[in-house]
């Protein structure tokens, strides 16, 4: 599935939407960050609501209803924000899961992240459905009775929850306080699980870009003002609610379980979670070679450690035993085979006067030396000063642009490219250089685009020297089908050369 037409279609849809959300703000490329934002809104608004909540059976409904009736511009608004944030949290999380599945982001170096993310779905649903209980209106009554019956279908309970706790004479203040504790405790477990989920990700994006963040908060606030959430009639366990305005985003498992029967529902749920958890095992593993460290050329500078997107590299004492000397050590199971570490290595400069360019850390399938050799050979045989294009194999296919006046090289990731190669190509006779990464916020390895930009701007090491004429090179981040902007970048650097630019 990850390499089939569904994946192609998904990526194409993202590219179509990109022009509507410039600067990497496409919501489809920020689903995980949007989910984290909604979770933050839930936590903050929930703290305020809890301050006014009465944990007794008789007082719960009145305390929640009072927020909407007596304090509509703050309490009622925040209550509505809380409800809609719960809906959006669920939507963004499920879409994030779907996207990662469609793109095949669940095996190899991503396996642990996937396996720690799937169980969070259970915490999310438990917390969301439990929140409706606390309102203790007719909708809360339905959520309580339906979920209690669903839980009672499990062999270990055998009807004890609904029979012993959910009738008009059994619901006590103590039981209700327990529900409050569960509703507060599960989000804390969710927060811990989220922290664990992100442990193998370097510099995770837990919030979307500022423009998208502000836009999403404004949308949420407008919804809360336009369609305020109010309580239904108080719960009455002696009567069965007839007409309910269900929140289908959060409560959809309950009518589904009723329609299928509890046994079928639990069976399907077990199969679903089993399949999700087994996907990293049954997925056809791609055996691409991982990075290799050369002890003679690694000086322990730590650049590769800082730039690795999946925390696959650490520093340890150098095997030569010299005091204080360190060497990079690779955890192969975490390596994404992206080559970003090779692009960060200070020994990767092509200006080194050696016959074979051996990097401190490098990729066997596309070494820095092989890239230099190919570039030198192509420039030597070019009939005229060509434009050199370095691109990412996960973005637009730059090698389709290879012709007499254009040399194109597809890299494992654009982050593999040492910035000094731009100057090296210009000194070797290139008319200009175009560096082409993936579309904004869509880097296959998360940080390739960002590190490339910062290296070119001189804010990250290794950096492009300021003596390199800025009009002779371009950095563009493009989707797979954005041929027009790439052509424009190529024409731009060629035009600057024809107008008298100097290498």
* Spatial sequence of strands, sheet with the most strands: 6-5-7-8
- Outline the biggest β-sheet: 4 strands, parallel
Percent of sequence in beta strands: 5-15%
User: End-to-end distance, in Å?
Assistant: 47 Å
Estimate the mean pLDDT confidence: 91
Which percent range fits the helix content?
40-55%
Number of domains: 2
Q: Name the overall outline.
A: elongated
Q: Ranges with pLDDT <50 over ≥5 residues?
A: none
Structural class: alpha/beta
Computed Rg? 28 Å
Q: Topology as H/E string? A: HHHHHHHHHHHHHEHEEHEHEEHEHEH
**Total of DSSP H or I helical runs spanning 4+ residues:** 19
The CATH architecture of the largest domain is: Up-down Bundle
- What would CATH call the homologous superfamily of the largest domain? Cytochrome Bc1 Complex, Chain C
CATH class designation of the largest domain: Mainly Alpha
Q: What's the number of extended β-strand segments?
A: 8
Q: Could you name the CATH topology of the largest domain?
A: Cytochrome Bc1 Complex, Chain C
Notable traits:
single chain; 503 residues; alpha/beta; Cytochrome Bc1 Complex, Chain C; 2 domains; four-stranded parallel beta sheet; two-stranded antiparallel sheet; 19 helices; 51% helix; elongated
Give the gist of this structure.
The chain is of the alpha/beta class and 503 residues long. It contains 19 helices and eight strands.
């Amino acid at each position: 599935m990850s390499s089939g037409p569904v994946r192609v279609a998904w990526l194409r849809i993202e590219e179509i939407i990109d022009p509507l959300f410039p600067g990497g703000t496409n919501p489809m490329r920020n689903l995980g960050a949007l989910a984290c934002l909604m979770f933050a809104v839930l936590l903050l608004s929930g703290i305020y609501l809890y301050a006014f909540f009465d944990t007794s059976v008789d007082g719960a409904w009145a305390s929640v209803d009072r927020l909407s009736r007596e304090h509509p511009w703050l309490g009622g608004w925040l209550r509505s924000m809380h409800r809609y944030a719960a809906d959006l949290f669920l939507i963004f999380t499920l879409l994030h899961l779907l996207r990662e599945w469609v793109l095949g982001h669940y095996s190899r170096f991503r396996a642990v992240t996937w396996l720690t993310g799937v169980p969070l779905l259970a915490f999310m649903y438990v917390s969301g459905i439990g929140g409706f209980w606390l309102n203790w209106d007719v909708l809360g009554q339905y959520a309580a009775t339906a979920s209690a019956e669903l839980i009672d279908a499990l062999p270990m309970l055998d009807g004890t929850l609904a029979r012993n706790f959910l009738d008009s004479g059994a619901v006590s203040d103590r039981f209700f306080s327990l529900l409050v504790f569960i509703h507060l405790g599960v989000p804390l477990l969710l927060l811990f699980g989220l922290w664990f989920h992100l442990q193998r990700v370097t510099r995770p994006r837990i919030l979307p870009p500022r423009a998208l963040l502000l836009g999403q908060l404004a949308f949420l606030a407008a919804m809360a003002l336009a369609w305020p959430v109010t309580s239904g009639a108080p719960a009455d366990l002696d009567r069965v609610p007839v007409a309910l305005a269900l929140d289908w985003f959060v409560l959809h498992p309950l009518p589904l379980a009723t329609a299928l029967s509890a046994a079928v529902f639990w069976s399907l749920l077990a199969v679903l979670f089993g399949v999700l958890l087994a996907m990293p095992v049954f997925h056809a593993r791609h055996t691409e070679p991982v990075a290799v460290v050369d002890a003679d050329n690694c000086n322990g500078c730590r650049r590769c450690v800082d730039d690795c997107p999946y925390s696959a590299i650490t520093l340890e004492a150098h095997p030569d035993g010299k005091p204080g000397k360190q060497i990079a050590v690779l955890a192969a199971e975490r390596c994404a085979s992206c080559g970003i570490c090779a692009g960060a290595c200070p020994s990767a400069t092509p200006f080194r006067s050696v016959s074979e360019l051996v990097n401190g850390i490098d990729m066997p399938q596309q070494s820095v030396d092989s890239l230099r050799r190919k570039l030198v050979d192509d420039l030597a045989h070019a009939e005229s000063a060509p434009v050199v294009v370095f691109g990412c194999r996960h973005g637009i296919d730059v090698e389709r642009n290879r012709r007499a006046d254009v040399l194109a090289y597809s890299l494992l990731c654009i982050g593999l490219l040492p910035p000094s190669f731009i100057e090296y190509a210009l000194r070797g006779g290139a008319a200009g250089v175009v560096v082409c990464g993936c579309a904004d916020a869509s880097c296959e390895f998360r940080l390739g685009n960002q590190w490339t930009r910062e290296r070119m701007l001189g804010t990250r090491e290794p950096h492009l020297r300021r003596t390199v004429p800025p009009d002779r090179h371009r950095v563009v981040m493009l989707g797979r089908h954005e041929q027009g902007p790439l052509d424009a970048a190529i024409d731009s650097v060629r035009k600057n050369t024809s107008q008298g630019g100097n290498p």
